[in-house]
Amino acid sequence: MKFYLSIFIIFYSVTCGFTYTDPSVTNTNLVKRFEYKLSFKGPTLAFKDGSVPFWSFGGSAIASDEQVRITPSIRSQRGWIWSKNTLSVDHWLLDVKLRVTGRGRVGADGMAIWFTETPGVEGTVFGSNDQWKGLGIFLDSFDNDALQNNPIIAVMVNDGTQSYDHQHDGSSQIQGSCIKDFRNKPFPIRLKIEYINQGLTIYINNGISLDDNAFEFCTHIDRIQLPKNGYLGVTAATGGLADDHDVLEFLTHTFSDRQALAQNQATTDEQAKKYQDEYEKYERELEQQQADFRKDHPEATTSVNEQQVFETEYDREFRVILEGQDQIRLSLTTIDRKMAELLGRIERIASSGSGGSGQASGVAGLGSNIPDDVARVQDINRVINANTDMTRTIQSFGQSLTDLQQKVNSLQMNRNNQQHVVTGQQPVSSNVDSKVFNELRDTIQQIKSETNALLQKIPDQVKCPTVVSTEDSSCLGSYTFFVIIALQLFVLIGYFTFKNRQDHFSRKYL
Asked: Name one GO biological process term (predicted).
């Protein structure tokens, strides 16, 4: 039964809804205008510092890019957001998109939309103060009087003397209401609040349809006296039960009478024409006074050449270019002076270092004259040069060893090919083998010569650090290193030669 009742309620809500029509469409005398200083909406609702432009909020309210959460679903919370500017027209429209969600079947306490003479402060009436002067529209979630008439949307106008009756949900104070369940809807609900010709009308989109323009009538109240100037605000509060109260959009539009607007525009144009006439009159009087002064004091007047007094656009651009060129010239002059100082210092150091008998003795004898940092730089340069020469020599060694390996592989292949020749005669050594052995001898001789040259060069430039104990020394001398490399090469070549001869004698006696 409950399932069919729910289906009926949904069907009734959808079929009874109607398409909302803007008052400026039905009444052509009204001109609609959007008030951006009295509105906010996503997706860039808040600044990076968390503030909302033209609005102030506090309490438990939190502003994000998409919405303003007036209260979170935490017990005993109060939040508020109020406009910094006033609404001072006779006809206006509020379009508010909000969402009320909670885990329980029943929520509390509710939220309120305000239009009051002064901004509210945190209080007991849905998060705002009591005895306000202006309009309050309450979305009351909790049934305090146990009459099973909640959630409800109620309207109450206060002149600043009445106190809201919480125990009875203000049933004897409200001027209009409609029972609408606005909690836990699939989509946000929307309220259209019109105030035109002292008549207040509220429409609601119940949030069960994707059609944003499908509204239902809620209530209408005539002859409502509201303040001429007022502030807009939204507040919310939670009690023993708690809901999330979110405001996604708050859009404010004002309506002006077309005839009154035309009259105001005509008045504005008339005032502008009046000001223009006064300015032209003042300008004529000033020119007349200047002419009279020049006539009475001819010796005190001098002709003014505007081309000499005022700078043309071409002259200004040319002056800017010249100033930039002058700054560049000053920078180059400064750099040249610093370079001259640096060269002078280098020449002084060079002249002081050339007074010795040799480079090494000069460095040792003039240690007190040459700065320590210069001496260290020279030592580092010598080490770097020696390492560079060593690297090049090792690279040449690598290339020579590669060539040697290729030649040995070629010799081995030739020997293997001779094994497949089956004849009764003794195989004759070819000229290719002698040629390959000669190339091997030349390569080994080249490696020995380069090794000797490197050994003669390295001791003069790079020395192994002096070690106190020979047993603890981990430095391998260059001479020992290259002797080991040469021994390995000789052993390798001897091994291949011995193996080739063994193969030769074995085939000789086959």
From this structure: endoplasmic reticulum to Golgi vesicle-mediated transport
Q: How far apart are CA 217 and CA 466, in angstroms?
A: 102
145-184 pLDDT, tens digit per residue, is: 888 888 999 999 999 999 999 888 898 999 999 999 999 9
The CB density around residue 509, as the number of other CB atoms within 10 Å, is 6
CATH class of 30-258: mainly beta
For the chain, the domains span: 30-258
Q: Which of 141, 122, 150 is nearest to 245 (CA)?
A: 141
Return the bridge partners of 220, or none: 201
* Contact call for residues 86 and 234 (beta carbons, < 8 A): no
- pLDDT bracket for residue 462 (50, 70, 90): very low
Q: List all residues 6 or more positions away from 182 whose beta carbon is below 8 Å from its beta carbon.
A: 100, 139, 151, 153, 189, 204, 206, 207
Find how far residue 452's CA is from the centre of its chain: 64
More confident residue, 238 or 475: 238
Q: What would the DSSP string read from start to end of 40-87? A: EESSS-S-TTS--TTEEEEET-EE-SS-EEEE-SSSS-EEEEEESS-B
CB under 8 Å to 15, separation ≥6 — which residues?
A: none
Q: Which residues pair with 112 in a beta bridge?
A: 138, 235
List the beta strands (DSSP E) in 432-492.
Answer: none
CA angle 68–70–75, rounded 5-degree value: 145
DSSP readout, 105-161?
A: SS--SEEEEEEESS---EEEETTE-SS-EEEEEEEE-S-SSSSS--SEEEEEEEESS
The model's pTM is 0.53
For residue 448, what pLDDT is reported? 63
